[in-house]
């Protein structure tokens, strides 16, 4: 059953259309992310759900009840926003209890709940400390405990790990997901970090220019991006434009600008003569020793322009098919590509994605 139901929500700031008829539903217990570039409308949508922003039109329901006239503090939400700092003069326990005290609970109930939350975020024994005596990661866990204290129906997270360095951020992602699973709270996360959205989410919405580009599981949006925007925003992609020249045995043949052809197993609805844009992920490409040795259904020849050595992987820039291609290989085999030399690559037709 859906917990959050957003229908046709639009919001202008003066001439800027920040949200353009956005619709989505978020299910019970789901970890749902709003992912997209800066200025896309993610924060405006999250703030509309929270009640800080009033949409011009559309509806936002939680558990089937319209939220539009419900005050912020009565929407049953827990929030962890970038600018929601801990209170420096209060102990950790008091910071966590802050969300409870306004709800008229007894002292004993509050203490018990605070202890439960300290345990949940692995900070038992830290209750009497002040925020400044905790590391950045520990402070984030306190903020999470505070957001969860009143047992919210929906947890809203706006770039909650944005201020942490990479290693700590990775650790906190795992921790956040574990805690969310344990509590089972329906969660909406705003992030511009693709890796974070892929790692954490059950499903995600890619938001750009105030519109939803695509909604799906991490696997669906990564493996089957519908638009060029999604294919390039979420990971890297090689794009080929060409003309459909045949439909043979379930494969769509596409002729490229330089006369070479590629095949896709996703183009049954395309007609001969249609112009198409295809996308192939760099990690799906393999180096072949020569054109005759290709066995995977697609083979292109050209030359290697650059090599980018990144320790565990090597990325090559190749010129072929009238385009620049990026190919990434793990650094476990002797490289067979040399800048300035001839290059051959191959991949499976299932990995040639056709975009709208
Ligand atoms: P994101 O969270 O994806 O970075 P935002 O929701 O913050 O995007 O912004 C969407 C658009 O709305 C942007 O063009 C931004 O400049 C504009 N915007 C956001 N908040 C305001 C505001 N309070 N006043 C005017 N324009 C705003």
What does this structure look like?
The protein has 356 residues and is of the alpha+beta class. The protein folds into 2 domains: 4-224, Rossmann fold; 236-354, RNA polymerase II/Efflux pump adaptor protein, barrel-sandwich hybrid domain (OB fold (Dihydrolipoamide Acetyltransferase, E2P), Beta Barrel), CATH 2.40.50. The chain has 8 helices and 20 strands. The strands form 4 sheets. Strands 6-7-8-3-9-10 form a 6-stranded mixed β-sheet, with helices on both faces. The chain has a 5-stranded antiparallel β-sheet with strand order 13-12-11-14-20. The longest helix has 18 residues, at 166-183. The two termini are 31 Å apart. The model has no long low-confidence stretch (mean pLDDT 93). Bound molecules: adenosine-5'-diphosphate. Adenosine-5'-diphosphate (ADP) binds next to strand 2 and helix 1.
Fold blueprint:
Elements: E1 2-13, E2 16-27, E3 31-35, H1 42-50, E4 57-62, E5 65-66, E6 77-81, H2 92-101, H3 107-120, H4 136-148, E7 154-158, H5 166-183, E8 186-191, H6 194-200, E9 203-208, E10 211-216, H7 218-223, H8 228-233, E11 238-248, E12 251-256, E13 261-264, E14 275-280, E15 286-288, E16 298-309, E17 313-320, E18 323-330, E19 342-347, E20 353-354
Parallel strand pairs: 3-8, 3-9, 6-7, 7-8
Antiparallel strand pairs: 1-2, 1-4, 4-5, 9-10, 11-12, 11-14, 12-13, 14-20, 15-19, 16-17, 16-19, 17-18
Helix pairs in contact: 2-3, 2-4, 3-4
Bound molecules: adenosine-5'-diphosphate (ADP).
């Amino acid at each position: 059953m859906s917990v959050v139901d957003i229908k046709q929500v639009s919001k202008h700031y003066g001439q800027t259309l920040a949200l353009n008829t956005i619709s989505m539903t978020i299910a019970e217990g789901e970890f749902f992310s709003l992912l997209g570039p800066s200025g896309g409308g993610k924060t405006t949508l999250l703030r509309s759900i929270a009640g800080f922003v009033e949409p011009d039109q559309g509806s936002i329901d939680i558990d089937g009840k319209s939220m539009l006239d419900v005050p912020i503090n009565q929407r049953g939400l827990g929030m962890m926003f970038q600018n929601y700092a801990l209170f420096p003069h209060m102990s950790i326990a008091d910071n966590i209890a802050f969300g409870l005290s306004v709800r008229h609970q007894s002292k004993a109930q509050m203490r018990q709940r605070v202890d439960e939350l300290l345990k949940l975020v692995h900070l038992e024994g830290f209750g009497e400390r002040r925020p400044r005596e905790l590391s950045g990661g520990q402070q984030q866990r306190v903020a999470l405990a505070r957001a969860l204290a009143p047992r919210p129906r929906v947890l809203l997270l706006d770039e909650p790990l944005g201020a942490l360095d990479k290693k700590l951020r990775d650790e906190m992602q795992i921790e956040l997901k574990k805690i969310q699973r344990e509590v089972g709270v329906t969660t909406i996360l705003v992030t511009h970090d693709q890796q974070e959205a892929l790692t954490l989410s059950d499903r995600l919405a890619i938001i750009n220019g105030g519109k939803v580009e695509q909604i799906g599981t991490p696997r669906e949006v990564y493996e089957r991006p519908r638009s060029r925007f999604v294919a390039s925003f979420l990971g890297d992609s090689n794009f080929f434009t060409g003309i459909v020249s045949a439909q043979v045995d379930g494969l769509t043949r596409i002729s490229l600008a330089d006369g070479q052809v590629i095949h896709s197993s996703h183009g049954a609805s395309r007609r001969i003569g249609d112009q198409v844009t295809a996308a192939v992920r760099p990690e799906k490409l393999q180096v072949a020793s020569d054109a005759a040795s290709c066995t995977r259904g697609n083979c292109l020849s050209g030359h290697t322009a650059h090599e980018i050595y990144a320790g565990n992987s090597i990325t090559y820039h190749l010129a072929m098919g009238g385009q620049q291609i990026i190919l990434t290989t793990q650094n476990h085999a002797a490289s067979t590509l040399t800048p300035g030399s001839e290059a051959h690559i191959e991949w499976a037709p299932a990995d040639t994605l056709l975009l709208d």
